[in-house]
Each structure stands twice: as structure tokens, then as C-alpha cells.
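ok so for the tutorial part 2 we go from a plain amino acid sequence to predicted C-alpha cells. step 1 is just haveing the sequence, like this:
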Amino acid sequence: MKEKRTELLVGFFLLISLIVLGGLIVQFGDFNERFKKTYPLTVMFNDGGGLVKDTEIRLGGVKIGRVANPPRVNISDYAGAIVDLEIFEDFQIPENAKFTVGSSGLLGDALIEITVPKELSGKFIKPGSILKGDRGTGFSALASSAENLSAKGQLVLEDIRGALVDLGSAVGKIDQKILHEENLESFNVAVREMTAAVGSINKRVLAEDNTDNLRALLTNLKNASANLNTASKKITPLIERGSDAVAALEQGISKLSSAAEGISAFTDKINNGDGLLAALLNDPELKKELQAFLVNIRRSGILRYRDSSKADDGPPGSKVSPRRKGFLGGR
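step 2 — the prediction. this is what the C-alpha cells look like for a chain of 331 residues:
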């Protein structure tokens, strides 16, 4: 009898424990929300990443609904996701409220946050409305941005990889063509020849004897320049005297020119004038008569002068009497 009583107490204790556990599960497992009435809303997001069925919808930090179904692709433009929401009938959402995809905590699951505008119009969103949502700036957005950056980084890495391949190809071409053994040998030969040429110039052209000769030449040129300067100082007075002599010579030439002009005028008068000299030079008859006059003067003198000397000459072949001495014809 005592054993039956103990078994009855144990069974009663277990029953109470199960009832309490079920109540706790229902209370903390949000099973009571399954029995709440809801109304539908549809929100279109550009990015629905992280949203799943039963994702919480919060307004002011309080859960007011959940995601009814997994997000589906917006087949109208294939540029976003369509999310069906279930809002508890006890809550009404004001118009112009913003639906934003956020995250709960640092590494928590995604959630949809509703932000109420500052100025309320007194109107509420009607059940079944289709709304536009945004992507928040939480850790989920950072994760999405990190994915985008990772994709861009991958592209950059591919570009870098291609550049490295091109660089490797260029280095290979340089190694094969420019840095070939024959080219390097030719370069070494050219360097050796250049070194030999520089050495030859240093030994022959820039030797001590040549540098001494060059110094002596420069010294001689300096002395010659000084002597030339001194000579130019001495020549300057001579040049000035020569200038005076040239001026005097010009004056003498001018006087000779004047004298020549006078002689030329006198000669013209003799040749072309009416005087005795012009007649003697231009008239042959007068020249003969003058010669005959002079002959008669020589033979007869002035007192015994005759116009013709034919009577004294005698017949042809006879001797001519000698000329009388004296101016008046005496012997």
C-alpha cells in the first residue's frame, strides 16, 4: 500500500513537471505567436540576403511579425527579392514607414526593422500593400559589401596575375634576345675596345710631353697676343701720319689736276685758236714760207734780205756762195 502511494506521488510530480516544462516551452518558444492573427504585407528589397522564413520583424525593438515565406526573385526585372510578411493584427504600421534589412547583434541573424517617420499623418498601411524596402548599414550590409569587395578584389587579382604573366613574357624576351650570350659577348668586346681607346688617348694625346707642348703653345699665344697689342699701339700713330700724308697727296693731286686742265686749255687754244702758233701748226704754206724766210735771213742777213733766194742760187749745178757773217750781212 505504501509503495502504491509513493508511485502515485512520483507520477503526480512528473505530470506537474511536464506541464511546467510545456508552459515554459510555449512561453519562451514563441508558440503563442502561432495562434495570433496576422495580416499580410509584401516588401521588395534590392538584396534579400540573410532573410529566411520566420525572420523577425521589429518596430522600436519589439517583435511585431515575421517573414511568412522564404524570399523569391522579382521576375519582373530580376533586380531584387520579394518578401512576404505577416504582421500581428495588434500592430498597425504608419504610412511612409521604412522597411530595412538589419541584423540582431554583432553576429546575429538578419531581421527587418521598421522605422516610423517623425511626422505622422494618422494613416496606416493597409493589409496586402506592396512596399519598397532598403538594405541597412548593419553587419549584414557590411558582409554584402565585403562580398562585393571580395569579388572586385578577385578581378584585381586576376588583372595583376595577367600583368605578371605579361611581365614574365617580357622578361623572357629580354633574357632571350637582349641578354643572349652573343649580345653580352659583343657588349663586352665593345666595352674592352672603348677601354683600350680611352687608354690610348690617355697615353698618346694626354701624355706629359703633349700637355707640356700645349702649355708652351698657350704661353706663346699669350705672348704673341701681348706683342700684337704693343705693335698695334705703335702702328696707330703711323696710320694717323699716313692719313695726313694721304690728305696732302690728295691736295697735290687736286693741284696737278688743275694744272693739267690749264695745259689742256692752252693746248686747245694752240690747236684750235687764231694765233700764229695755231696757223704754223695747221697751215702748211705758212710753214714753208717761214722756213724760206729763215733760210734767207741766214744767207743774206736782215739788210740784204730778198723775198726770193733763187737769183743767188745760180744755175743748177753752180756752187752757192758762202753765207755772210754778221747780222747785217757783212763778211
